[in-house]
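Bit of a strange request maybe. I'm writing a small parser for C-alpha cell strings and I need a real example to test against, not something I typed by hand. Could someone generate the C-alpha cells for this chain?
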Amino acid sequence: MKPPFIGLITQEWSQSAYQVQATKLGIGLKTSNKKMSGSELIDFAKECDLLYVDPAIISSSAIKTAEKSGIRIYPSSKTIDELAKITSHTGEADQLSVLVTRSAHAQAASWPITLLTNELCITPLPGISDEIAQEIQMSVLKLAAEVDLVGGFELVVDATEYKKLIGINWITPTANYWNQIGSVTSFYEQNLRAILDLPLGSTQLISKYVVTGTLETDQNSDDYRPYLHLMARNPRLKFDQSIKQVGVAGDDLEELLTEIIHAQQYYSGKIVE
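Reply from user aminoacidic:
Good idea to test on real output. This should exercise your parser:
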C-alpha cells in the first residue's frame, strides 16, 4: 500500500510539529500557510490524497468549492459552519484548554484539561474533581460528534464558567507544547491519525503533571546562553525555541511550578541565578 500524501495548510511554526510526526509515520506532507481561493485550493490539492486546513486561514467558502470538486478535505465546511453558530465570549481571566480529536469512524479521544494562566499551562487542571473533569470532557466529545468532526480542535473556555466558550483553535492549539513532552500521544500525531482514519493513540500523561511556560528573551543576552544554567539546574527541562516554550513533567506540582517560573525569570534576565 502506498503511504498517503497530505496537503496541510496551517501556521508556519506548527508545520514542523506535523512534519516530525508525519516522518515518523512514513506519511508524505505538503505544507503552506497562505490564504487560498477555492480554485487555488484545488490546485494545491493536486497529488494529495486529502487536505487538512486551518479555517482561520482557509475560508469556509473555499473549502466548499474544494468539496464540490471531489477533494477530501478536513475539517468539512459543515463542521465549520456548525461550530460557527456557537456564541463566543471575550476572555480576560484564567482559561481552560480542552483538546479533542475524532476520526471518520467516530473514534474520539480527549486529553486532560489544561489551565491557561499567567504565561503558564498546567495539566491537568489542579483541584478539579473527577466528576467535573469528566463532565467537561464528555460535553466536548459530544460536541465533536454533533458537528461530525474529523481531525481535532481545541476549545478554550472560561476557567470559572466552563460552558462559556472563549474560542476554537483548529490545527494549532494555544496549549501547544505540553502534550508534546507530557502525553503518550501528542495532539499533532493524533490529528494525523484521525484524518487518516487510523486507530487513535493513548492520551495518558507520562507523569502526574506537566507544566509549560512562555519564554521571553533577555534584551541583553540571547536564546542560547541561558541553557548553561537552566539545563544544569534541572536536566529534565525541555525547550522549544520555535514557539518560545519551556516545559517539565513530574509528580510534584509545586516543584514543577517553581522550576518553570525560575526558568522564565532567568531566561528574561529578571534574575541572574
